Amino acid sequence: MRASPGNLAQIRQALAAIDRPLRRLQVSVRFDDAGNSASRELGASGRISNRGARVEVRGEDRRSASTERVDQSIQVLEGGRAFIMSGQSAPVPGGVWQTGTGFEVVPRISGDRVLLDIAPQKQSFDQQHRMATTVSARLGEWFEVGAVASSASRDERGLASGRSASAYDARGVWLKVEELRP
Questions:
Q1: What is the signed CA dihedral for 45, 47, 48, 51, rounded to 10 degrees?
Q2: What is residue 76's predicted lDDT score, i.e. its pLDDT?
Q3: Which candidate in 87, 106, 115, 167 could, as Cys together with 37 as Cys, close a disulfide (CB 3.0–4.6 Å)?
Q4: What residues have CB less than 8 Å from 72, skipping those under 6 apart?
């Protein structure tokens, strides 16, 4: 069977659309950590005797703030799988013990956007816990994929003293996918 010139042109156009080299991509992950803590302490003590009186008052006010940003990146072909991990490893008898969290990502390009299948993983000893999601974002732009925040406070009161403390910690996880040109 022979194809007409119109059908042949459509077949060539369809083949050109699907028969293209896979794009090289760079997936970047940013871990942002921020923390604040504050504490106050106030105390008083004294002594009264026939020689006189002595009173001592103490006060302390402390504040601290910290930020840390860690960027990691990996190159992957479009549709391929990439894994980025953050954690710890330590030598143990007979091997290396590892614990940490990370992401497996599978990027696919659609115009000026990227579709990312994200499967966060938490690894502890030989156990893995998995869940997955798909997100869409513009190529070359950072987007937040998750965040965790915690806070705590404590107050203690005594007859001649008082103490209070508070802490706040936040961690954000950001992704960016860029196409690498040859």
A1: -140
A2: 92
A3: 167
A4: 28, 29, 31, 84, 86
Task: Report how far residue 93's alpha carbon sits from residue 178's, in angstroms, rounded to the nearest whole number.
Answer: 41
Q: What ranges in 35-84 are assigned the alpha helix state H?
A: none
* CA distance linking residue 164 with residue 69, whole number of Å: 29
Decide: 155 and 163 in contact? Cβ < 8 Å. Answer: yes
9 φ/ψ angles, rounded to the nearest 5 degrees: -65, -40
Domain spans of the chain, in order of start: 20-42+61-180
Give the mean model confidence (pLDDT) for residues 96-101.
Answer: 66
Which tokens is 111 given? Answer: 């115009």
User: Per residue in 21-68, pLDDT tens?
Assistant: 788 999 998 888 888 999 999 888 888 888 888 888 888 989 999 888
